[in-house]
Amino acid sequence: MTVKNKKILIIVGGGISAYKSLDLIRLLKKNNNDVKAILTKSGKEFVTPLSITTLTKCKTFEDIFDKKMESEIDHISLSRWADLIIVMPTTANFMTKLSLGKAEDLATTVILASNKDILLVPAMNVRMWVHKATQKNLKTLQDYGYLFLGPEKGEMACGEYGDGKMSSPRQIFSFLHNYFNKKNIVKKKNLKALVTTGPTREYLDPVRYISNESSGKQGYEIAVALNRLGVKTTLITGPTNLIINTDIKTKKVISAKEMFNEVKKTLPVDIAICAAAVADFKPFKKNKNKIKKNQNGLKSINLEKNRDIVEFLGKNNKNRPSIVVGFSAETENLYKNAIIKLREKNCDLIVANDVSKKNSGINSDYNRVLIIDGNENLKMFKRSKKSFIANKIAKVVLDKLLIDDRNFN
Ligand code: C5P
After folding, report:
1. For the chain, which terminal residue's Cβ has fewer other Cβ atoms within 10 angstroms, N or C?
2. Is the CB of 280 under 6 A from ligand 1?
3. Domain range spanning residue 340?
């Protein structure tokens, strides 16, 4: 187990376990990593800049904005420099600041301006950890994409017992090993993914169409999550109101036919996740002019079936992605209907989402899902933010891909 040649920025928070950051710095330096540290104002109550500088062999950045420091290395380049940022210990108060998106000192500003993954290693009294406010912050921060390690169960400095003990430097080192290893594999393998999302529009005439209420949020968040894991991801989206991050390669389409064509053009990929609410049918013919109210002959609309994109991918002999994921939006018999779809469309995984409730599913920021694989193993996620669920789906997919690929190591 090792971590080598990485650039790690450690933010030392204000808690009794701050001294353990010195052990992690030693461990990282011993393994040829470059370490810089920001010492927060309250962290300084527990460790000194001198001990940090002695170990990092670099100036300790203190939690104040000084002109000298900004001219040496400003808060933006400090976050750009790092491969990963670690906050240890992450206190309850620091979690609150991050949940609010505060940028009131060097540590919070670097984090807010960061384009890197941020690992939070909490440590606090057990009551503080289980407090509703902290648990709410935890959810918010997970939703923002922060990574968490711990806290562990154990006896705390205050003498109480429970969840709140900071993970040890060894545990953090082991986390870093797995984290960079996975990134490395993804990079080496040059993994590519496509994600479909949003509704499609099937036009009857130049102004009228058949569509649905899909917001495209779930698929978009999945694309963001895969991208963050280093997978080169193309998002193929029907018409939505989403503000799409420019980091995500995006192809905008209107109809199911266009979506199908873009999917075909994007192949080959390793992963295909079809979260789009594709219209099953389209009008047999699109009227060239706007249909008049009193137009004779328009008593009914003739429909024809659209190609099923996920089924095309699942049954594609030539260019089948290694992992094909379908979605199954249901109002009843969630599990049973999802399994049928998984089999019929030859998917590797199916994400069944319950759309019977108003406060989750289609056109909501929340979702409730089951992720089911071909052996009918399932993982259940109760009502959570779509971004949280997206991170889970991305992780399940990537783990499955890495486990399934026997030639990986
Ligand atoms: O059969 P149903 O439409 O309920 O299946 C939903 C799944 O199939 C979703 O993954 C959706 O993106 C996909 N689908 C598709 N092409 C279609 C219809 C549905 O990819 N024409």
Report:
1. C
2. yes
3. 190-408
